[in-house]
Hints:
This protein is an all-alpha fold. Helix content is 74%, strand content 0%. It has 4 helices and no strands.
Amino acid sequence: MSVEEIKHSITALSPTEQKEVSAFLFHLRHAADAAYQERINSKLSDRDPTHWLTPEEFERQLDQR
């Protein structure tokens, strides 16, 4: 299957399925990146509530990317 065929197939998916594909590709992109994994582990281990985002702030920052 060519990349163009994959793109065409993804276009035909529902928005929910497209989000699932997007999440999968994000995972693939970062799975072998040790520096990224370390940053994520550091953030997940942070117990200081002043560093945390509300769900709304998280969504706002995500939308800016």
